[in-house]
Amino acid sequence: MTICRVVGNVVATERGDTIDGGSFLLVQETSTDGTPVRAPNRGVTLVALDAVQAGEGDLVMVAQGSSCRQIPATREKAVDALIVGVIDLVDEGGTLRYRSQS
Length: 102
Description:
This protein is mainly beta. It contains no helices and seven strands.
């Protein structure tokens, strides 16, 4: 699972996923404090199916690969990145790294 920030929306009127009501969001990988990852081969921007009604600017947990096809709505669908949670707080080794402003 990866920590990402929602950075935009993706609209596709012609889709092959047949997931009712599913929306796609643009997410970018971040560190545990929410800052974008900029190392080589990291900080990838992905299109992810939103399973939790996340919004732009939210820090989210993103599952990738076969694990994102384990919930009923995505089983046997062409989904490779799935937003599975909106992060409220990250405590890393006793240090508060991130707290949601909402």
